[in-house]
C-alpha cells in the first residue's frame, strides 16, 4: 500500500479530530496573528492613489511569504522524516479548520433563543455576524445563525479540506489566509472597493469548486429536490458567486426560508430570498449544525475511500 495515498486520509482524519477535540487555540492562534498583521498592513497601504495596485501588493506581501514558509517547512521535513512531515501537515490543517468553532459560536444562540433570552441571543449573534442585532427578533437571529453556519461551512471547513487534499498543509494555509483577507478587505465600500478587490477576486477563485461541492453535499444530505431547485433559481441573484449556491442549497436542504432584510451600518439591506418554507427559528440552528457536521463526515469518508482505492491500485 502506497503510504502517500493512505497518508492523505490519515492527515485529514487527524486534523478534523484535533479540531473537534481542541477547538480554536485560545492564545497565539496563527490566524489571529495574521489578522493583526493584515490590519497593520492595510492601515499603511490603503491610502492615497492607486489603491487597486496597493491592495494587490498588500495581498502578495502578507500571504505569499507565509505560504512559501509552510511549503518550505513541509518539504524540508519530508526529506528528513516523512512521519514528522505528515504530523506537521495535519497540524496545519487543524489550525486552518473551524468546525468546532462554528458549533461553539452558534449552538449557544439556539439555546438562548429556546430559553427566550433575547438579549443574550443578540449579544452572541453580534459576535459572529457584521449585521446590526440590537433590535433583532428571534427570526432575525435564527436566520443569522443558520446563514453563518451554512456559508462558513464552506469557508471554514470544506474549502480548507478541498485545498488540503490538493496541496497539503500549504494549500489549506493559502485558502484560509485568502478567505481571511476577503473577510477583512473584500467589502464594496469607499474604503475597500478598490483596495480589497484583489482579495475578493482571489477568494472567489479559490472557493469556486469547493462552494459547489459544498452545495451539492448539502443537497444530498437534506431535501435534495428543493435544494437543487433553490440553488438553480436563487443563487444567481446573490452578488457572491460562491455564497449564493452554498446558502440557497443549504436553505433548501433544510426546507426553511432565509435571506431578506438585514441591517448593516444602520441601513436596511434587502437581500434576495433563500430556500423555501417557514422562516428560521432557534430550533433550526442545531439542524444547520447537523447538516454541516454530516457534510464533514461525508467529505472525510469520501477522502478516505478515494485514498484507500488509490493506495490499493497504485
From TrEMBL:
Which compartments does it reside in? Cell membrane
Q: State any GO BP term from the record.
A: cobalamin biosynthetic process
**Predominant subcellular localization, coarse grouping:** membrane
**Transmembrane residue ranges:** 56-76, 83-102, 156-178, 291-313
Task: Give UniProt keywords alphabetically.
Answer: Cell membrane, Cobalamin biosynthesis, Membrane, Transmembrane, Transmembrane helix
Membrane protein topology class: Multi-pass membrane protein
Q: Does the keyword RNA-binding apply?
A: no
Which GO terms of the cellular component aspect does the record hold?
Answer: plasma membrane
- The source's domain of life comes to Bacteria
Which pathway does the UniProt entry assign to this protein? Cofactor biosynthesis; adenosylcobalamin biosynthesis
> One MF term from GO for this chain?
ABC-type vitamin B12 transporter activity
Q: Which family does it belong to?
A: Belongs to the CobD/CbiB family.
Instruction: Outline what the protein does.
Output: Converts cobyric acid to cobinamide by the addition of aminopropanol on the F carboxylic group.
What is the name of the protein in this document? Cobalamin biosynthesis protein CobD
Q: Source species, please?
A: Herminiimonas fonticola
